[in-house]
Amino acid sequence: MSRVRRALLVVGDVVTDVVARHRTPLAPATDTAAEIRTLPGGAGANAACWAVRYGGGEVRLLGRVGTDAADWHERALRAAGVRPLLVRDAGAATATVIALVDASAERTFLTDGGAALRLSLADWSPGLLDGVARLHLSGYLFFAGPSREAARRALRDAGRTGVPVSVDPASAGFLRALGTDRFLTAVAGAEVLLPNADEARTLTGHAEPDRAAAELSRRFPLVVVTLGAAGALVAEDGAVIARVAAPPVRPVDSTGAGDAFTGAFLAARLAGADPVKAAETGCRAGAEAVTVVGGRPPVPPADGS
Question: What pLDDT does residue 145 have?
Answer without folding.
Answer: 93
